[in-house]
Design a protein that fits this description.
two-stranded antiparallel ribbon; 206 residues; binds zinc ion; binds pyrazine-2-carboxylic acid; alpha/beta; Rossmann fold
Length: 206
């Protein structure tokens, strides 16, 4: 099964959303076209309760500040992707008919979950790896938002779980809290054995 994983393509990560990713909306037409080239499409969805401790407001701090959250370094975020709110819905304009499974993450208020596979403390498994193995997925292609957070950690965990993993780099955008975050994220993924490819390599094949 050639599989496309859509990471957190949600309204709150679009330029008009609560945690805007610059140009995040620009990936949507491309991701829609890419879907036609895959046998299986799976999505992740950031899905936070209102008391999620990654939200700066709960610490009297500003988004972008760092804290230690139960022993793990945590960058603080604006309130985003609240369960059952429009901001958490898959993005307006994203083709969703062929998405076979949506994996929700970030539901535990005490620990953030950038990866679609595990919480940041690697204690809780979302079931994504088991699902992909059950579907006999060998090749996993990753697109989505944000390149330097959820896409990066999802792709790194996919490698760790043994999947042949490719990042379709023009199908992603970064939030770039620090200037070079996206560039560094791509380097880190490449160093871990993630193939870095362009959408054209997929779209130009039959
Ligand atoms: C994300 C920050 C906080 C992401 C989610 O999807 O990249 N980033 N929550
Ligand atoms: Zn989040």
């Amino acid at each position: 099964m050639k599989t496309l994983l859509l990471v957190d393509i949600q309204n709150d990560f679009l330029p008009t959303g609560a945690l805007p990713v610059p140009e995040g909306d620009m990936i949507i037409p491309l991701v829609n076209r890419l879907q036609e080239k895959f046998d299986l499409i799976v999505a992740t969805q950031d899905w936070h309760p209102a008391d999620h401790e990654s939200f700066a407001v709960h610490h009297g701090k500003k988004p972008g500040e760092m804290i230690l959250l139960h022993g793990i370094e945590q960058i603080l975020w604006p309130v985003h992707c609240l369960q059952n709110e429009p901001g958490a819905e898959l993005a307006v304009g994203l083709e969703t008919d062929r998405i076979e499974r949506v994996i929700q993450k970030g539901t535990n208020p005490k620990v953030d979950s950038y990866s679609g596979f595990f919480d940041n403390d690697h204690q809780r498994d979302t079931g994504l790896a088991a699902y992909l193995k059950e579907k006999e997925v060998k090749e996993l292609f990753v697109v989505g938002l944000a390149l330097d957070y959820c896409v990066k950690f999802t792709a790194l965990d996919a490698r760790q779980c043994g999947f042949n993993t490719s990042l379709i780099v023009d199908g992603t955008r970064g939030v770039n809290m620090a200037v070079n975050d996206s560039v560094n994220a791509v380097k880190e993924m490449a160093a871990a054995g993630v193939h870095i490819i362009q959408s054209l390599e997929i779209l130009s094949s039959k």
